[in-house]
Specification:
Layout (H helix, E strand, L loop, with lengths): L3 E3 L4 H8 L4 H7 L6 E3 L6 H7 L3 H9 L17
Helix pairs in contact: 1-3, 3-4
Length: 80
């Protein structure tokens, strides 16, 4: 698993928070990863999708390789 720390305002987090499946295009382009981490809160796109209740996007992110066990800055993962 390769984790990248990226700026909070990266497109991946806006799309994930909005439930937009456009995240797939970012993955295809290599400009984002399911395990990118926000630089302030340590959220992944999966954290953003879970917090907003976007279950279909959550399923997609997990199928794309997102790791539900990654903990945010608070120490909580989405499985907690």
């Amino acid at each position: 698993m390769t984790l990248r720390i990226v700026p909070n305002d990266s497109a991946i987090f806006s799309l994930a928070g909005a439930g937009n499946i456009g995240v797939a295009k970012l993955f295809d382009q290599g400009s984002a990863s399911p395990d990118d981490i926000q630089d302030q809160r340590s959220f992944t796109p999966l954290h953003c999708a879970v917090l907003r209740g976007h279950s279909e996007l959550c399923k997609f992110l997990i199928s794309a390789g997102a790791h539900p066990s990654i903990a945010a800055f608070s120490g909580d993962s989405i499985t907690d």
